[in-house]
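We were asked to recover a plausible sequence for a given structure. The inputs and outputs are reproduced exactly as logged, with field labels preserved.

PROBLEM: sequence recovery
POSITIONS: 324
GIVEN STRUCTURE:
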């Protein structure tokens, strides 16, 4: 058993002081935006788990099928004694990797990391029962905080995995910065396993983000509830509508919350008032769809050598194994 189930990375003075500055920056822009990390309070993480089960939402299912086929090979190639997962959520798919590593070696450390404390603690407890010989240490914090921590705690056989195409939330510039931080968190020989969503027709993409049951809509709107409790806000969710569109030119899904009235809301803790015109929107998420060729050039440029690319028969999703 690890001494601490979950180590809290985001309670330093700097982290607390900076909390919400990104909300202020996003909501005071001409075209309003909010960072996707605010989807994931405990309820939002639960809604995301439900999204993963939706008939229209193909990514989780497709990535799982790839992992079912190749987890053993990935465990063998990497031979890692430590697996760090960024944005681990419930760690459901990761169990396929953990099972594979368990076949090789019991002295193994799994480090799930997330911004949502509830789901992280629950999954650490569950995993400790399922993998009694593993050492399991949760890290609560943002990607930034986690990668900074990892950089100062190097490990000779580390693998960092980043599944589910969460990398699709980054703008190209943010993705570039993120990859720089990944390489700093890896020693030469360490591995990086990246799951990414690939190009596909709009007719598949748009329903995946506008599901018939309205779970994605609830997930999108929940960001405003999260801001309400976190920053003492008074957003009225009834004024907002969810809509996701596929931007063909940028090859990305864009998720919006449209405000239907002229209204003003405030976030007391941030000392912020926000005016909306009827029809004005907030961009809450981009979900980029990748091209394997372009991505491989980008990874290699960062010193991440592509060792294997796994995909499904329809080439809807990719799992890239790189070595630093
Ligand atoms: C967790 C960022 C990979 O972009 O598909 C799912 C989030 N948003 N449905 C995605 C999401 C709406 C998801 N990622």
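RECOVERED SEQUENCE:
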């Amino acid at each position: 058993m690890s001494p601490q189930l979950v180590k809290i990375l985001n309670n330093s003075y700097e982290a607390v002081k900076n909390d919400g500055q990104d909300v202020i920056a996003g909501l005071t822009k001409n075209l309003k935006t909010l960072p996707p990390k605010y989807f994931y309070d405990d309820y939002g993480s639960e809604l995301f788990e439900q999204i993963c089960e939706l008939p229209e939402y193909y990514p989780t299912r497709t990535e799982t099928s790839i992992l079912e086929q190749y987890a053993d090979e990935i465990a063998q190639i990497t031979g890692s004694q430590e697996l760090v997962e960024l944005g681990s959520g419930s760690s459901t798919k990761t169990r396929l990797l953990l099972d594979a590593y368990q076949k090789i070696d019991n002295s193994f450390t799994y480090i799930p990391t997330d911004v949502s404390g509830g789901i992280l603690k629950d999954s650490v407890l569950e995993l400790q029962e399922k993998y009694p010989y593993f050492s399991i240490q949760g890290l609560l914090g943002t990607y930034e905080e986690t990668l900074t921590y990892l950089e100062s705690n190097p490990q000779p056989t580390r693998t960092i995995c980043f599944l589910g195409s969460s990398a699709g939330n980054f703008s190209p510039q943010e993705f570039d910065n993120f990859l720089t931080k990944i390489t700093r968190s890896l020693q030469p020989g360490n591995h990086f396993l990246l799951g990414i969503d690939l190009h596909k027709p709009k007719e598949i993409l748009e329903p995946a983000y506008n599901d018939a049951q309205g779970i994605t809509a609830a997930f999108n709107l929940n960001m405003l509830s999260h801001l309400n409790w976190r920053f003492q806000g008074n957003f009225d969710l009834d004024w907002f509508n969810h809509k996701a569109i596929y931007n063909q030119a940028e090859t990305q899904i864009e998720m919006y919350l449209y405000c239907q009235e002229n209204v003003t809301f405030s976030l007391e803790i941030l000392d912020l008032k926000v005016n909306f015109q009827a029809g004005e929107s907030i961009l809450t998420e981009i979900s980029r769809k990748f091209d394997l060729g372009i991505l491989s050039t980008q990874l290699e440029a960062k010193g991440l050598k592509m060792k294997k690319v796994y995909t499904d028969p329809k080439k809807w999703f990719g799992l890239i194994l790189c070595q630093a």
